[in-house]
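hiii, so i know i said id send this last week but things got crazy w the move. better late than never?? heres the sequnce for the chain we talked about at the cafe, plus the structure i predicted for it. fair warning i was half asleep when i ran it
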Amino acid sequence: MASARVSDVLRAWDTDGNGTISMREFAGAMASLGLSASATDMKALFAEFDPDGSGAIDYHELREALTGRLS
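okay and structure toks below
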């Protein structure tokens, strides 16, 4: 996935426009993609995208989550 596409995903999922994806925004994005999961499972998935545990997914974390495992 090209960096421009990661930026597009970040903009789409970052509904408040602050440059990061919160747990609430992430859960909403996953629901819009058709993912139905328990709160516990959603938190676990979010943690995979937020390895530093900051409570928000930034561009670099999102890029790694979406592309790093494919390399």
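btw The beta strands are 21-22, 56-57. thought thatd interest u
miss u guys!!
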